[in-house]
């Protein structure tokens, strides 16, 4: 039952992605033309790098706690 519901969810999300192809994304064009898209990308990269560092530090602490027990 879980596999069928997961498959149905993936198929619905797949259809939703293709339903949006006809539209032009004006916001992306404006950000790209003004050069602000690089600020957006840099912000996203900084957030993901921060999350990765945080998760690795938590993992290291958990390994140390498990090793002590």
Main sheet properties: none
Ends apart, CA distance between termini: 39 Å
- Helicity range of the residues? over 70%
Outline type: flat
- What order do the helices and strands follow? HHH
Strand-residue proportion = under 5%
Mean pLDDT: 84
Using the CA coordinates, give the radius of gyration.
21 Å
What is the count of helical runs?
A: 3
The helix-and-strand class reads mainly alpha
Query: How many E strands?
Result: 0
Describe the structure concisely:
The chain is an all-alpha fold and about 70 residues long. About 85% of the residues lie in helices and about 0% in strands. The protein contains three helices and no strands.
What does this structure look like?
Helix content is 84%, strand content 0%. It is mainly α and 69 residues long. The longest helix has 32 residues, at 37-68. The two termini are 39 Å apart.
List the helices and strands and how they pair.
Blueprint: H1 2-18, H2 26-34, H3 37-68
Relevant terms:
3 helices; 69 residues; mainly alpha; 0% strand; flat; single chain
